[in-house]
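Hi support team,

I submitted a single chain yesterday and got back a structure, but I'm not sure I'm reading the token output correctly. Could someone confirm the output below corresponds to the sequence I sent? I've pasted both exactly as they appear in my results page.

Thanks,
R.
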Amino acid sequence: MSRVINTDGPAKIRNQHMRTCAEILRHLSKKKEFDAETKDMIAQIVFSLREVNDTIEQSSEAWEKRNYWMKAEEFRQRWTWTGKMADQVEDLVRRSNWEDFPSLMVSLFQHFGEIKVNKFTRDAETWQGAYDRLMSER
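Hi R., thanks for writing in. Yes, this is the structure output for that exact sequence:
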């Protein structure tokens, strides 16, 4: 029997969600009006940041299994912002405090600025209904 190789490792998942956030931020920066799609996009950022945050521990544990304790801890420290930022954006959405999003968007851009978006690969289906899913969670 042959080995099963998982091609969807934590790094690939993390990169996909980082790319999704980067594209959504580019779309949001071009929007001229605040509408239901904008709410969905912001809610999708919460979901994507949560997914990125979930992959951090998986990657860190892989480093720890190889006795790279310092590398694992550095990795955790480098990515701590994802959980905090997901909580901040979620809090903004739940309180409908939309006027504070532009300042939060500026701090998000610093983390996604190095991701080059030459062509949009995510379509509107990616974030459709995200706001309703987020609001129905609790």
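A quick pointer for reading it: Residues 12-135 form one domain. Let us know if anything else looks off.

Best,
Support desk
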